[in-house]
Write a structure and sequence with these properties.
This is Lipoprotein. With about 210 residues, the protein is mainly α. The protein has a domain at about 80-205. The protein is built from 9 helices and no strands. Helix 3 (about 65-90) packs across helix 5, helix 3 (about 65-90) runs parallel beside helix 9 (about 185-205) and helix 6 (about 125-140) crosses helix 7. It is flat and about 50 Å long.
Length: about 210
């Protein structure tokens, strides 16, 4: 099969030769036009190099969505169950190896798979939304979600809340506005759920 590039070259050469002839009949307009058309067709038919494919987006760190709030809540519930199971194994441990295995099973890395599965996400994405929503919830939840405010002086509670509000003003602009607005009325509930999970991790690790 003739090479497309060589066909284009031959057609262009024909035009040049006809134009350069000093004697004899000059090429007709039809001949020149046909040769030019042939060259253009051959050049158009030649394959063009493809542009390099764009690098795939990193879905794990894609911006948060409102739906991620429910996913995180489901994930925390599953992680709590995994931590409680590890705590039961710790109580039933008969050897040092059993104890170590149970304690390791309660840490965040070990329970992430359970949380991701319940959330319907891969572990990388679940780890990302858990980290981001945890930080956001901490500044949106009232102080009472972390401490027994009734046992502290009112002035102290007020001062702590003012500081938290200041942090929220700095942090929230970094997140999608719809996520922030959806999280505000649920922040206290989710913060308490998060603190419960942390407390059970401490117990399962044998530190409490």
């Amino acid at each position: 099969m003739p090479d497309r590039h060589s066909g284009a070259a031959r057609a262009l050469l024909l035009v040049a030769l006809l134009s350069a002839c000093g004697g004899g009949d000059k090429p007709s307009a039809e001949d020149s036009s046909a040769a030019a058309d042939s060259a253009a067709s051959a050049a158009a038919a030649a394959p063009t190099p493809e542009a390099p494919a764009a690098a795939p987006a990193n879905d794990a760190s894609a911006p948060l969505t409102v739906a991620d709030i429910d996913r995180w809540q489901k994930g925390m519930a599953a992680e709590l169950k995994a931590v409680q199971d590890a705590g039961a194994q710790l109580k039933a441990a008969k050897t040092g190896n059993d104890t170590l295995t149970a304690m390791m099973g309660a840490n965040e890395t070990a329970t992430r798979a359970a949380g991701a599965s319940a959330a319907g996400l891969d572990e990388s994405r679940y780890g990302f939304i858990a980290s981001e929503l945890s930080a956001l919830t901490m500044v949106l939840a009232p102080v009472e979600a972390d401490f027994e405010a009734g046992k502290m002086p009112a002035a102290m509670v007020q001062s702590m809340q003012q500081e938290r509000d200041r942090q929220a003003a700095q942090v929230t602009p970094k997140y999608p506005p719809d996520v922030v607005e959806a999280l505000k009325p649920r922040a206290a509930e989710l913060r308490k759920q998060q603190m419960t999970l942390v407390g059970w991790r401490v117990k399962a690790a044998g530190a409490a």
